[in-house]
Amino acid sequence: MKSTEIAALYGSVLGAADVAEDDDFFEIGGSSFSALTLIAQLNTAAGSVVLRMRDVIRARTPRALAYIMETRLEGAEPSGGPR
């Protein structure tokens, strides 16, 4: 899933327009409750990649979540990458 698609989901969940790839979910109004909604939507859209709350807490931007998803699709757990 592309970071631009994840940014669009951030906007949808938070009711925010123009979410950028480097916007922090919690800094733009996200909460643990809205994170659960985001995770459910991401897991539905992604299909074979499963995200958890810790992923959104650790990788707060669309770019960082896209990196995690891409890494998991390749069969490895992310050890670094964008934040």
Features:
83 residues, 0% strand, Non-ribosomal Peptide Synthetase Peptidyl Carrier Protein, Chain A, mainly alpha
Describe the protein in words.
There is one protein chain. The chain is globular and about 30 Å long. The chain has a single domain, classed as Non-ribosomal Peptide Synthetase Peptidyl Carrier Protein, Chain A, CATH 1.10.1200.10. The chain is mainly alpha-helical. The two termini are 17 Å apart. Helix 1 (3-14) crosses helix 4 (62-73). It is built from four helices and no strands. This is Acyl carrier protein. InterPro entries: ACP-like_sf, PP-bd_ACP.
Strand content: under 5%
Q: How confident is the prediction overall: mean pLDDT? A: 91
CATH topology call: Non-ribosomal Peptide Synthetase Peptidyl Carrier Protein, Chain A
Give the quaternary arrangement of the chains.
single chain
Structural class, from helix and strand content? mainly alpha
Could you estimate the helical fraction of the residues in percent? 40-55%
Number of strands: 0
Please state the second-level CATH architecture.
Orthogonal Bundle
The major sheet is characterized as: none
SSE run: HHHH
**Considering the protein shown, what is the CATH homologous superfamily?**
ACP-like
Shape call: globular
Tell me the Rg in angstroms: 11 Å
Contiguous low-pLDDT stretches (5 residues minimum) are: none
Distance between the termini: 17 Å
Number of domains: 1
> Regarding CATH, which class?
Mainly Alpha
